[in-house]
Amino acid sequence: MPTRKQRRRQEKTRRHEWEYVYVDDEGNEVDVAPEDVAASTNGRAQPRERKSQTRKGAQTRRPGRTIEPPSWRRVGKRGLMIGPVVVIAMLLLNRNLPMAQRVVPAVIMLAFFLPFSYFTDSVAYRMYRKRMDRASGGGARGAKS
Fold first, then answer.
1. Cβ–Cβ under 8 Å, residues 101 and 94
2. Measured between alpha carbons, how far is 19 from 44 in angstroms, rounded to an integer?
3. Are 59 and 25 in contact (CB under 8 A)?
4. Where are the domains of the chain?
5. 69-121 pLDDT, tens per residue?
6. Cα 105 from Cα 88, distance rounded (Å)
7. What is the rounded CA–CA span in Å between residue 106 and residue 111?
8. How far apart, in whole angstroms, are the C-alpha atoms of residue 113 and residue 86?
9. Which residues sit opposite 38 in a β-bridge?
């Protein structure tokens, strides 16, 4: 049985008028003609099913972000962006220490950050490849080769 809060939310969605639109092949929203909207038994307007348009609308979904394979070049660019920020932060946070003791920890942090960044990219890429193989039906579960 729904809670009081859930019932209120359901009632709220039933109170509003909904505007029906279709998405054409180019991705533009097209208003539904009044004659295409048939009244249902409870008095709310329901659009008629258009199988061809709904199928095409499902196929024109925006694809997810493609993840590129890991590369040290991209990690180096990331290090060039993060490196100066880390060095400046260490310079500002450790003002009472000599210059060498301010810069060396920043270099050590970057030495850990860069390989970890490559590792993170490789894990993300492997997960992406598994998801794409599963979506394309390429891998059968439990099959031994």
1. yes
2. 11
3. no
4. 7-57, 72-136
5. 999 999 999 999 999 999 999 999 988 989 888 889 999 999 999 999 999 99
6. 12
7. 9
8. 11
9. 46
